[in-house]
């Protein structure tokens, strides 16, 4: 690329802060408004390429119409004193998501840090979902095109190969428009052309099946971005890319929890990323909003758990049975009973919001009491698998939980013996 400099009366060039295939990004000072800005300048070698000029103009028009808190604002699209096109945008100071992942290494999977990274991911989904509502598909979503500012703002960058679709829930006034008649992009007129970053691209995009590209293509790239957050590397390998290019069956993408250090990746998150990256578009999330919802639900710990409705008098759990599930009372009341030598003694009554059955699940030992419905009840069922995924029973946290559950059962058993014998329970350490 030939050295590209900016020559205007209004902007003073400071330094080059980025380079791409069609231009450079310059840090500059706006003398009129007295602020630092980012200016993308078209490579001088491309000034005679009509398609590149048109694509550059369309990038300005598309990103300029996508007014969203997580999309970089466009200030101006102009021509400098030497006749070169430039795009003036907000200067975002911070690091890319890719740089952040490299910097954190395996520590990215620490609970607090992963929570922060998931919040970044949700904001990216917000931006892409908004773009889809305006009829725009990004097509180059990846960690290096996501900027995290010094004060926590998140921005989706580089709409240079964005695609306008003929669909969209918004009316004509809400849809993004470009000056080209019909709103088509040049590459869609040439089947087989491939634009994007191979290791994050959906198979239909990578194979050049441009007619099949839709919102689910961005879903795949977002899943690939989430995959890199979890696994520490992109999902696609050179072998997979070559297979897709040659229209052969690629090897499956290994689950992120199989790539990352053992026990560090929450199983539910791994399932979300894997579904988003299904090679078959029909098997992916139907929309970015659906993907975003599942990640947000994971953050809140509110998976779609089954509900159980039982009439008064029903036995929910029975003393001595294995603990395969715990329960949250949503409606009604339940009584906890202990059976000693054939006699049933009520211990306490539970109401909405109370939890029971978790000790047996965590300790993997039989129930120590029975629970019956005092009134008609609605219960949320939390299976042992869900609890394992949520708490991470294979991790050090799980070891503490199991130890506490075993200790609770031990204390409970000694109290029962003391009640039967009339002697104080022995202290154990």
Task: Please characterize this protein's 3D structure.
Strands 1-2-3-5-4 form a 5-stranded antiparallel beta sheet, with helices on one face. By secondary structure, the chain is an alpha+beta fold. The protein has 12 helices and 18 strands. It is 33% helix and 22% strand. It has helices spanning 50-65, 97-104, 111-133, 203-206, 215-231, 238-245, 256-259, 267-276, 288-300, 358-363, 384-391, 396-421; strands at residues 11-19, 23-30, 35-42, 74-79, 85-90, 94-96, 136-137, 146-149, 154-156, 163-164, 307-310, 315-317, 325-331, 334-340, 343-350, 355-356, 370-373, 377-383. Residues 181-189 have low confidence and may be disordered. A hairpin with a 2-residue loop joins strand 14 and strand 15. It is elongated, with a radius of gyration of 29 Å. It folds into 3 domains: 11-90, 2-Layer Sandwich (Phosphorylase Kinase, domain 1), CATH 3.30.200; 94-300, Transferase(Phosphotransferase), domain 1, CATH 1.10.510; 307-418, Jelly Rolls, CATH 2.60.120.
